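ugh ok fine here u go
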Amino acid sequence: MPNLDGGHYFYTGLFPVALETVARADGSVTVPSHLLREALASLPNFSQVRESQDADRRTERISPFARCRSTHFARLAVIDEPAFNGRDPVDAIKGAIKGVDLSEHQPVDHLSRPWLLFAADFDADEPDVLDRWATELWQLMEPELRAIFQHCTGFDRVESAEAFAAYLLRGQLETTMSFNDYWIDPMPGRPLSLAMVGWVTLAVLALFVGMAWLIQREWGGGWAVWVAAGLLGAGVGVWAAYKLIMARGAKPFPTAPDSDLKSVLKSLCLQQYFTRFAITQQGRSAEQLYEAFGRFLEEMRPDDVERPTQPPGVLHS
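structure:
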């Protein structure tokens, strides 16, 4: 299913940046796209300093998106122009015969204005979770969101969490190529195989052949009935197989075990501390290792995703 896959919602939105000139406090004149870049450049990203954590395990340098304990990733970028991939490749011999002038540029796409890209990946258990996530985001980081989106057209009418959710919905693009790699073991459920698709096609074809047999027995019709039934049955069978494939492909992958943000952060924490544990226990006896591992389990509490854990917005190893 677009946008939702594997217990995660993949949001993608594009928002038009305003074009009107803006006067700064010092009297200089600039444009909203420059102010937007300044706002994004000043937005905290992540922290690598353990000692700067306060009682809430947050620092001034941590991204405000880390306040939302369901957001895995968030990205903001200004798009001025589409990427230019060079000239379209052509056959050199055919081009020479046709007299193609390689010094003459081919058509190039341009945008009428800069656009703000907003992409995010967050925990979701149903397709209609976007409003809830956007509302929570507004409640947790309204000042930062205003500093960013105030340079986009239409945002001046956003005055509440509900209005912000509607604003994100208006700018949303369907995400059909999401990336989610939390599955380690084979996913449960019966996969769709070629044999299953073939059986569906043959079942529909057999149904039409059976109908042709009944028609032939009751009313006659000769070989034309069999030909028509075969063609119709094959066509409808292929159509049914196609619909089956599309319906199965539209279903999102089930949620992978321990793929929510809290579990992922806990896994990162255990990975780091267990690596240190393995290094420090080199050369210990079996009894010493057994006692040390018991203390490790008591201290780290692997089944408790709340603590101790990797703080969101903090990057260290």
